[in-house]
Each structure stands twice: as C-alpha cells, then as structure tokens.
Amino acid sequence: MNEAKKMNDLDIRVFVGILATFITLLFAMFIFSVKAENKLSNRLFGAFLIISSIETAGFFIHDFVTMSLSFFMFKNTSYYLLTPVFYLYVCSVCYSDFKLEKKHLWHLLPFIIGNLVMTPRFYLGTREVQEGLLANLIHTRELIFMHISMHVQSIYYYVMSIIVLRRAKNIFFENHSDNVVQTYKWLYQIVIFWIAIFSIALVKNIFKYSDVQSAYFSSSQVVLVFAILLITCWYILKALNNPDLFKGVDSKTKLTKELLEESEDKNENQEIIENLKVFMNEEKPFLNPSLSIRNLAHQMKISPRELSIAINHNLNQHFFDFVNEYRIEMAMNLLTDKSKPKLTVLEILYDVGFNSKSSFNTAFKKHTQLTPTQFRKQHI
Asked: Residue limits of the HTH araC/xylS-type domain (predicted)?
C-alpha cells in the first residue's frame, strides 16, 4: 500500500529523471564497449556520461533510497569532476594525439578542495552537528561555497572548451575535407547545448536561494531534467548516425600563417597551383570523403607544407572550401545530366564525396545560392 502511494506521489520530474539516467547509463555502456580508434576519447565520454547520470539521479534518488548526509554531499561533489572530464573529452576529440599525463591531475583540485571543505562538519561531524545542518541545509556555508565554486568552475571549463575549439577550427578547415570537419561541428554543438543546460541549472539555483523558491524552483527542475533528457537522446542519435564523428587532428599540425612565418620563400608557387588544379580535375581525389591535405600532398608527391600554403594562402581558401568546390561542380553536372534523371540527390551527394546531407546542402547553397532540388528544377 505504501509502495503504491509512493509511486502515485512521483511527479513528472522523477519519471523524466529516471528515464534520462537510464538512457545515459545505457549509452555509457555502449560507448565503453564499442571498438574505436580513439579509445581515450570514448573512455572520457563514457566517464562524462556516468558522472552526468549521477547528477541526474539526484532528481529522484531520495524518493527511493535513504542516504546519510555525508554520502549525499559526497555524491554532490562528483559534479566537480563533470566539466573537467568534458573539457578533456573535447581536447581528445579535437587532437587525435592527445594523451592523459600527470599534468592533467591538477583538474582534480576542485574536487579535492570541495571535499576538504565538507570534511569537518559533513563527513566528520557528530550526529548532533549533522542534524543541525539538516535543519537549514541550503544556507550552510559549505553548500553556498559548493554552489558558487561549481558555477565558477563550469564557466571556466566551458570557456576553455570554446578556446580549444576556436584553435582547432582553422586547423580542421585548413587541413581536412567534409568527413573530419563534421567532428568540429559536433563538438561545437554539444558544447553550446551543455552551456544552455548549465544556464538552466544556474537559474534553478538562483530560484533555490530566492524568495520565490516555491513558485519557480520546482518548475526549473522539470525544465532542467527535460533538457538533459533531450540532449542525451540527441547525441545518441547523432553518434549512431555518424559513427565516424570521433576523429581528431594532430595537435602538432600548424596553421598556414605559422607555416608562412617559417617559410623562407613566401612568393606564390604558381607551378604547384597549376599542377594541383590539373590533378583535381583528372584524378578526382575529392571523391574520398576523408580526404586531408596530407593525403592529397602524398598523392601529388609534394610536402603538406607547400600544399597548405598554396591552397590556404595563395588561393586564399580553406582546404575544406577548396575541395567542396570540386564536389559541388561535379554534383551540378550530375543534377543536370539528362541521361541520369532518376539519380537522387542522396545518391549524388555520396557519389561526389560528401557523407552528410546537411553538409552537402549547406555547401551547395553557399556555392549556387540554391538548394540541389531548386537547381535541378531550374536547369532541366
């Protein structure tokens, strides 16, 4: 009878929290078990998902489990690990040669300090002391410190993640074509989504300490847990539909401006550019979705440095845009080929070297100001 009453009392926040936690843990198990080239990246993402599920479990765990105050606080301090692991995950995906080293142990410092702050009264305090803390828990100096420090830490790591992405962006676009560039877009989206979730959590905690707590705090919890569920479902679908997302670039790869500073001959190399255009038209290396500037340089038997300067500096184009121009030109020919009227847009985009419908449509519209379907209708 009591169990039935307890289930009837569960609100939407609890049900959604259970669902989000279950899906997150299930996806974490999948990430840990799947075989991938970048094992470290998968492990960090799996660890991030597990820590995230621990946080999400806080929305319903008290309805089912009675836990001591010290265990409750230790569970809460696990959040100190969430954003550092997320930041390291971003680094590991951006740079394929990223490795965990002893210097990365300093990321544990907030977690250690947070637990040291809790030790005197929450971990080692007598029963009477802990009961006194429970009477006005959210206004204890330890909990206030925890909330402020966690929010400051989150801002720091999200900013650092964006900085890493901004640095990696030009390297991605200067050295890779469509396939690997999708990694950057995936990372950027997931960082923005988690910043949005952090913002909701910040608003929730403002309500928690304000006079309108009863009116808005519960609603903000529901919004937050729904947001976590939605983003979890989103990156599950994203990862399953794009299994090649987790490819990084070598962190030693240099930007063109850095190569130019090292180069003694800064004059335009017309011979390389002319040979490049002939090679692109005759050999069609752009049909490879994973084409990189190193691959192309190897095929042309020249140095990646010379090729990078020729494309990114002399032609004033990112390698990404340079390759996509050839793909789009070929797609335009196929779309207007009257001998192949039954060839679908999806078939064409794969035939010319794209592996994503969205990236194909974006590149095509950038080049022609029309969608592929509109272009076909106007030219047939």
From this structure: 270-378
Q: pTM of the entire structure?
A: 0.71
Q: How far is CA 63 from CA 50, 54, 120, 130, 190, in A?
A: 20, 15, 28, 21, 31
**pLDDT tens-digit profile of 170-198?**
776 666 665 566 677 778 888 899 999 99
> Could you read off the pLDDT of 328-347 as tens digits, one per residue?
999 999 988 887 777 888 89
Place of tokens 């936690």: 21
CATH number of the CATH domain containing 236:
1.20.1070
- Asked whether the beta carbons of 181 and 320 are under 8 A apart, the reply is yes
Strands (E), the chain: none
Please report, for the domain that includes residue 316, its CATH number.
1.10.10.60
Residue 216 DSSP class: I
Q: Do residues 124 and 198 both lie within one domain?
A: yes
Percentage of the chain lying above the pLDDT 90 cut: 21
Same domain, 107 and 76: yes
Q: How far apart are CA 48 and CA 264, in angstroms?
A: 46
Residue of 166, 169, 190 lying closest to 41 (CA atoms) = 190
As a whole number of angstroms, the distance between CA 200 and CA 203 comes to 5
Question: How many domains would you assign to the chain?
Answer: 2
User: Mapped to the 3 state alphabet, what secondary structure does 78-147 carry?
Assistant: CHHHHHHHHHHHHHHHHECCCCCCHHHHHHHHHHHHHHHHHHHHHHCCCHHHHHHHHHCHHHCHHHHHHH
